[in-house]
Automatic annotation (TrEMBL), chain A:
The keyword Hydrolase applies. It comes from Micromonospora radicis. This is Carboxypeptidase regulatory-like domain-containing protein. It comes from the Bacteria. The lineage of its organism: Bacteria, Bacillati, Actinomycetota, Actinomycetes, Micromonosporales. Keywords: Carboxypeptidase, Hydrolase, Protease. The keyword Hydrolase applies. One of its GO terms (molecular function) is carboxypeptidase activity. It holds the Pfam family CarboxypepD_reg.
From TrEMBL, chain B:
Its EC number is 3.4.21.-. The keyword Nucleotidyltransferase does not apply. This is Serine protease. It comes from Micromonospora radicis. The lineage of its organism: Bacteria, Bacillati, Actinomycetota, Actinomycetes, Micromonosporales. GO terms for molecular function: serine-type endopeptidase activity. Belongs to the peptidase S1B family. Residues 83-97 have a biased composition (Gly residues). Pfam families: Trypsin. GO terms for biological process: proteolysis. Coiled coil: none annotated.
Length: 130, 355
């Protein structure tokens, strides 16, 4: 068998292998909660949580909790939004990094605070609004 | 050099293994075809061959809708505006469709205030009031309240009882556990409010009966697969109308974009819109644009008004699902961006709706 034929044969063999491997790698299986739960994995995100209150200690509900990444390049923060609940509580899930956080209610802003978010960790940050 | 007989046998085994790999990988793809009114992709203008979905549709319940596969659709979908089933997005045209600033790349804001990274340059959003005019009526506010904290997102009706949104609005992604079925957020924590206008809820409030996404988001956390859907307890779309959607293989760069949603920097429940922009960059799975957005606008429709006779979709037609403000490097750092409605995204959305 000459080299040309060998090359063609090798291509015939390798191409399906590469295509098959590619499809296997990039295809995902469907799952549902009827089946086994996905195995727990280390969380790649961190959580910043806390409360917003007035100087008198009353909870500030329905206030926007605004975050701004301080790192460059900025991590991908989904454009979800977080607001405080009835007890003034909030919770942000964020990629690791440094953020400036402000709570805004009725055009009143809290003083900005900086949070350093670590994967799998919870950072507590409370705010007081004027 | 001639191969020895044993060499030939080895080569035959390798060939068989390769073919087996191809057949296996095809076999694990979702096999059930969607029963839709679309046209087989083989006839689509793009000329692409229909291929099985490569995302892995998942739900927060056991009932995972069968994915469209061998009879994948081209980007024509029966859409309607307010009131008439089966028609093509025939509601009143919004301000979309303006085409300006093509190729004009403005620089991101200097970030002097938290959360404004997705308002690019001057804030050009305008309040939508009233919201009972289609297609504004078909845009929904999503509110999730879990453990005393509230999250906001946006979605858009594309059927009587289903909305599309960002994947991160229904599942934390990347294998994280949102606390509900199959790692999704708890469906009972959701409220979906079509056409909300401040305190007014002209179409009532719906709840979620199923949350849907794909494993490339739920397990892999892949930003380019960040999309999902929520099946509703109500049939608000019959009153509000719903959006059309389409995919195309050709670039979207230069085409008109409007983004409208429920941003969290405004009074909660107000809908705000930025029209008159164009797609700046098109990637295989993402679309980049200059329309101003803000937190809580994830899931907003990136849409345009397409004239009668347009290919694939006419009326109010969605090309992408907004998901991210600026971050990282260009074009992500200079444009807001969303998950592009590709053939596979389109097929999943339609399959979810029709199942």
């Amino acid at each position: 068998m000459n080299k040309g034929r060998l090359g063609a044969l090798a291509l015939l063999i390798v191409a399906p292998l590469l295509i098959g491997a590619g499809l296997l790698v990039f295809h995902d299986q469907s799952v549902s909660d009827d089946g086994p739960a996905p195995p727990p994995r280390p969380d790649t995100m961190g959580v910043v949580t806390g409360t917003a209150a007035t100087a008198a200690g009353a909870p500030v509900r329905d206030a926007a909790v605004l975050v701004r990444p301080l790192d460059e390049p900025a991590p991908a923060v989904p454009e979800i939004g977080v607001r405080t609940g009835d007890a003034g509580r909030y919770e942000w899930r964020l990629p690791p990094g440094r953020y400036e956080i402000v709570v805004r209610a009725d055009s009143r802003d809290s003083a900005p605070r900086t949070a350093t978010v670590t994967a799998g960790a919870v950072t507590r940050l409370d705010f007081t609004l004027p | 050099m001639s191969p020895t007989p044993s060499t030939v046998i080895r080569l035959q085994i390798l060939l068989a293994a390769g073919l087996t790999a191809v057949l296996t990988s095809t076999a694990v793809a979702p096999a059930a075809a969607a029963t839709t009114t679309g046209t087989p992709a083989s006839t689509a203008a793009s000329g692409t061959v229909a291929k099985p979905d490569a995302h892995g549709a998942v739900a927060d319940s056991g009932a995972v809708p069968a994915a469209a596969a061998s009879t994948a659709l081209r980007g024509t979908d029966s859409t309607r505006g307010a009131g008439s089933p089966g028609g093509a997005g025939n509601g009143k045209a919004g301000p979309g469709g303006l085409r300006s600033d093509a190729g004009f790349a403005r620089t991101p804001d200097n970030r002097t205030s938290p959360g404004i990274q997705s308002v690019i340059g001057t804030d050009n959003r305008v309040r939508v009031n009233p919201t009972t005019v289609y297609p504004s009526s078909a845009i929904v506010q999503i509110v999730r309240t879990t453990n005393g904290s509230t999250w906001g997102c946006t979605g858009w009706l594309y059927g009587p009882s289903i909305i599309a949104t960002a994947g991160h609005c229904v599942h934390p992604g990347g294998g994280a556990n949102g606390g509900g079925g199959n790692g999704f957020y708890p469906r009972g924590d959701f409220q979906i409010i079509p056409g909300r206008n401040g305190a007014a809820t002209p179409y009532g409030t719906c709840t979620a009966t199923q949350l849907l996404s794909v494993t490339n988001w739920t397990q892999s956390g892949d930003e380019t697969n960040d999309y999902g859907a929520i099946r509703l307890s109500c049939a608000a779309g019959n009153t509000t109308g719903w959006f059309g959607l389409w995919w195309q293989s050709a670039t979207l760069t230069g085409t008109a974009t409007t983004v409208s949603g429920y941003p969290c920097d405004k009074p909660f429940g107000e809908q705000w819109r930025h029209a008159g922009q164009t797609v700046q960059v098109t990637h295989d799975r993402q679309v980049f644009y200059q329309n101003d957005t803000f937190g809580c606008q994830s899931g907003s429709p990136v849409y345009q008004t397409r004239a009668a006779g347009s290919a694939f979709c006419t009326g109010q037609c969605v090309m992408a699902i907004h998901a991210y403000g600026v971050h990282g490097s260009a074009p992500h750092s200079t444009n807001n961006h969303g998950t592009r409605i590709t053939e596979s995204v389109f097929n999943n959305l339609i399959t979810w709706r029709n199942s």
